[in-house]
Request: fold
Amino acid sequence: MAARIAVDAMGGDNAPGVVIEGALRVASGDLQLLLFGPLRVLQEEMARHAPKGHPYIALINAPQVIGMGDSPVAAVRAKPYSSMRIGLAYLRDGKADAFVSAGNTGALAAASLFVLGRLLGVSRPSIPTYYPSINGVCLVLDVGSNMDSKPEHLLQFGQMGTAYARRVLDIEQPRVGLLSVGEEPAKGNELVRAANKLFSAATSINFVGNIEGGDILHHAADVVVCDGFVGNVILKLTESVMTALPVMVGQEVAAQGLPPSVADSFKCIVGGLKQRFNPETYGGCAPLLGVNGTVIVLHGSSGARAFEKAIPLAVRIASADVSAAIRVLALGTA
Amino acid sequence: MAARIAVDAMGGDNAPGVVIEGALRVASGDLQLLLFGPLRVLQEEMARHAPKGHPYIALINAPQVIGMGDSPVAAVRAKPYSSMRIGLAYLRDGKADAFVSAGNTGALAAASLFVLGRLLGVSRPSIPTYYPSINGVCLVLDVGSNMDSKPEHLLQFGQMGTAYARRVLDIEQPRVGLLSVGEEPAKGNELVRAANKLFSAATSINFVGNIEGGDILHHAADVVVCDGFVGNVILKLTESVMTALPVMVGQEVAAQGLPPSVADSFKCIVGGLKQRFNPETYGGCAPLLGVNGTVIVLHGSSGARAFEKAIPLAVRIASADVSAAIRVLALGTA
Reply:
């Protein structure tokens, strides 16, 4: 049966141009797309790229647009006819298998909760992040959707990460690590000490214990769990290594009197390393886990290529039925 | 007047050998040292290094030893005749200007609180860490002494960091940044949102606003304030970059088919970068700020060279009277 993916044509800094461009590259008889936005805007943009239209792309009118700077909850409430809300309603009603958007992430999360609702057993949905390591990627969650988590939220992050790693990354028993300041269960802040007890008792995850900040890049776990504040800080810190590194390397080349050719050849290496830390390398997108349906979040700066990768990933996540796997783990019936 | 520094001869993984070795290198008429430990142990070790003794090193009997693995508070209570407690008592009683130890950090902090007490206006002492950036070092505090901080603790970290940067790093108006997940005051977890209000209202510090994880290496602030859990995680993560980087670079060299000579020359660069991230580069030691007196904490793995650097730094911090500067800022009389 053909997959039908709903796409927010108005989401992201470069919408709707790049969305339609990406959609045109992947739409087929097996992968049918529904694009949501103000109809006239979509028609004009479509005319520019494909004057005759596309047999497997449907344009669906959603006259309101949620802006990148809009206050998430207020915008979702105030704009019932936005591309996000209408697109998500198609997903909820079974008229689409997944929803893909590069729009305002906060609004997308709020709209998903509002339209789709949480999965039973999940209090706080979370977007996992692919994190590079010396030995493949690991998943870190949460990385910013959730400030001030409770221990049971962290356990749910571990369960959602497990379900995703198992169904999409094909890791049968993903190792779940709890980010702390020492391996000992008694180390850490109040949140993590309480979470350690929950994690240790849980049969739904393969808990390998507390891990430290230095263990992530060394891949001590496949799923690294932390609260969204810590996750956001470490994610941005790690990304900044790739912007700071070329400067520091230049300083070392000068300080050590190395030939400039060294700096040149290092540029290729840094380029390669930067790719590892570039979200687009891993599809430039991630699922919003824990809501009742498959929602894919793209970076606001996504280009056509990101949509070209994200839409097939959406199909994969939807058909792997990650939501069902989460429900089983979170309800403890595993 | 000669400086008199009290040194915990039993602290650290390599005590007392390296302590005595380091002490012998720096002791002089202007820098007199008092070494604390079981007298016979000290005498035997001293005999090995300097059979005739040293005119400016006094060995003072402290028969009990607090081990690296001892439970801090319990050990401090149970061992009144430990090198830590007796050495700190000398400092408290004005018989020494500073106390230097590579021993159990938790015990050192507990013993300092017990013997010296807190500075008025400071609730939680903190050990700042030198953090490398593309443009000199910045200070990050707290990095692990304090889990579960309150907003006022974070403000005190900012004040202590300011006093230290001003008096010891010679930065007249150190920029203080509050680590968060976005520049906006309303971003962050509950702790940081409340702290932002306190920081914004404080006249004792030069607050430049919230900074993000990616801003530290780019030196957006001279003093970066965070709670000890976050600080510890990011410190260990950053240190791990230097162990993960050579592996990743090797992988890139292979993947890109670059000549092995590139990897070789990169080893020099990584070596230089590692130095920046090596605590020993900055003396391998840091003060315990916020207690009533100058206490210098060394890494447990410190060698003789670390003591050789730490003891003169202790003199500098004591004579700069960082404690007095903290008291002024923390009491808001600046």
